[in-house]
Amino acid sequence: MDSPSFDIEHVKHVIEAALLTASEPLQLADLKKLFDDELDNDALQEALTEVAQACEGRSIELVNVASGWRFRTRPEYQRFLDRMNPQKPPRYSRAVLETLAIVAYKQPVTRGDIEDIRGVVVSTNLIKALEARGWIDVVGNREVPGRPELFATTRQFLDDLNLKALTDLPPLDDLGQLIETVAPGARVGGEFGAEAGDEALSADGEETGIDAPADIAPETGPTLN
Amino acid sequence: MDSPSFDIEHVKHVIEAALLTASEPLQLADLKKLFDDELDNDALQEALTEVAQACEGRSIELVNVASGWRFRTRPEYQRFLDRMNPQKPPRYSRAVLETLAIVAYKQPVTRGDIEDIRGVVVSTNLIKALEARGWIDVVGNREVPGRPELFATTRQFLDDLNLKALTDLPPLDDLGQLIETVAPGARVGGEFGAEAGDEALSADGEETGIDAPADIAPETGPTLN
Amino acid sequence: MTTEIAAPIARYRGEPVLQLPLDLYIPPDALEVFLDTFEGPLDLLLYLIRKHNLDVLDIPMARLTAQYLEYVEVMRRKSLELAAEYLVMAAVLIEIKSRMLLPRPPSVAPDEEDPRAELVRRLLVYEQMKLAAHRLDELPQVGRDFMLVQVWIDKEADLALPSVNAEDLHQAWLWLLQRASVNKHHRVTRDQLSVREHMTMVLRRLQEVSFLEFTQLFSQEDGVPKLVVTLLAILELARESMIEVTQQEPYAPIYVKLTHGLSVV
Fold it and tell me: From A219, B125, C5, C242, which residue has the greatest number of CB atoms within 10 Å?
């Protein structure tokens, strides 16, 4: 706003106070409520940028995550903070992490989908632990017999990993690349020659559907193997 | 400290990170734990003074209250923060939740029992806060030197958590499976030669550990564990 | 193979492999641990494939099946608890293997799938998720790799009390387990909780009166389970020196009181 009384220093201080005390990330709409005069997005954005810049070289930084803006400590200070406070969130087992990865990358998924991909039964406790952590929740039911619940990751999951959107997750290896993992020289040809008959498969995997990720995308619904 | 490597800027940044993230005021003794090298009180005090000075003109200030140092918003910013208000209920710190969980699941317990399980000192304030809330109270004393008080959860605790009996609390049997208990390096499932040995050891340790819970739950004998 | 013995046929973890291991040797002591290392049959199969540098698109089924079955057999001999999934996978492998042994007519329809295709697809999808899980775990995480900033607001009127639910306690216990690595030690089951609850109840009753006759702690309306739990609670309290149980002479009434008879707290 071009109101003559617009004082960017004041706006910065108020915004900073709000962000430092908030228990959750704040969105632009929340920040606007701090001021009587209507503040436009540009002015707010400018103030946020300046607040962020003022943190340069300090131990905290202003970040924009899925639910909004918030301050956090820079990871390089964690080792000092750990000395004072030995309490850390649990380091999850592979079972939990694999389940989380499947929900994150294939959402929405049912427990059955997760079991199909992992090839083992997924315990209720495991799902509950991720729900209790606030990282996954039920977003609906799949319309098949039994109407199984569909799980997806939450905004808090993104917030807790300091991400703005699911697209910020590390990209998946594509299946083609996983196939290539074997060095070309390392083929075991000879010994298993007898069985290695069907070159067709390795030559053009496309026909077998191995190279067609569409097959395994969540859209395929309950047929997802 | 006249150590030549003493870097006041670094000390200030670390202290600031600790104070900005602590849920309770910090004492000099707490702050000292942040650093490997012994830091003397003068150096700490100097750093604190400089951190406090750096806040001049900003919306927060560093204050020394009865239980230690903490940042707080300057009162003149309160009216702005009130506008944003959607007062989300505060959350208890992890220390409070863990203490409450121990009293709930292991009652009756002394403060010493809680400290043994948590591995850290339990502050009087924390116990008092739970008593003030009416969730725990003293139900007796253990007949050991010092006659420590025995804490248990109250009827109100059950009411407030909407439980009929303690047995309605979530069972904890297989929670152990959810967390990482092996060395992080073992997760890729690649090589198991060297690591397998270690794990075998810990597997053994676990079994024998069941008979010797003394180090974690001192007065509670084998029969109840 | 034209390769001479000296030339490594593969590199595994940087080590040259001169000869394919003939079998998967599992030290007997490590077996149980070995089983725990895997998240299931897919994980085990992937391990076997990657360890032997097998071509995923051209899996030698006879070899893989033999190794897998050998492994499953050892587990059974050791009477280890073998998850059903492992047996199901054994059946799948055998079925694929036998289908591959069937002669194929030269005029085989082009759309006929390689019997291994479905297994390969599952293995790759699983491997993809396994790697993703690993990377997910490496992302900085709140509370573990960075902290959130929370500055105090000095405000007296703020009386909103934090709320807690049962799941919070569940989560708190997970934190405890993690830190203390006490996983197996703190087995708290419903039964034990019930004893603990009755210990508290007995202590509360003894606070109201200085002592009670043993029998007064029991009520006839209580069912057997409750009577037993109450007795266990009293025994445990006595063992932990929280109460005293006394009897002047045989057959005399038994009295229960707080140790030191203190009802004042």
Answer: C242
Find the radius of gyration of the CA atoms of chain C: 32
Give me the CATH topology for the region B94-201.
Arc Repressor Mutant, subunit A (1.10.10)
Residue B62: φ, ψ to 5°? -100, 125
The domain defined by A8-81 carries CATH number 3.20.20.80: no
Asked whether residue B217 carries a pLDDT value surpassing 70, the answer given is: no
- Is pLDDT larger for residue B87 or for residue B43? B43
DSSP string, C170-201: HHHHHHHHHHHT-TTT----HHHHHHHHHHHH
Q: Which of residues 20-49 of A touch B (CB under 8 A)?
A: 20-21, 23-24, 26, 30-31, 33-35
- B93 C-beta neighbours (distance < 10 Å), count: 17
CB contact under 8 A, B58 and A83: no
Out of A97, A181, A186, the one facing C9 most closely (by C-beta) is: A186
Contact A92 B33 (CB under 8 A): no
**Beta-strand relationship, C211-213 and C243-247:** unpaired
For chain A, say whether C108 makes contact (Cβ under 8 Å). Answer: no
Q: Tell whether pTM > 0.80.
A: no
pLDDT band at C94 (very low <50, low <70, confident <90, very high): very high
CATH 1.10.10.10 placement within chain B = 8-81, 94-201
What distances in angstroms separate CA B22 from CA B35, B60, C232, one per listed residue?
A: 16, 15, 43
How far is Cα A3 from Cα C214, in angstroms, rounded to an integer?
A: 82
Half-sphere exposure of A162 (CA within 13 A, CB side): 20
The burial class, CB within 10 Å (0-12 / 13-18 / 19+), for C106 is exposed
Question: Smallest CA–CA separation between C195 and chain B, in Å?
Answer: 9
- Average pLDDT along chain A: 78
| Amino acid present at A109 | V
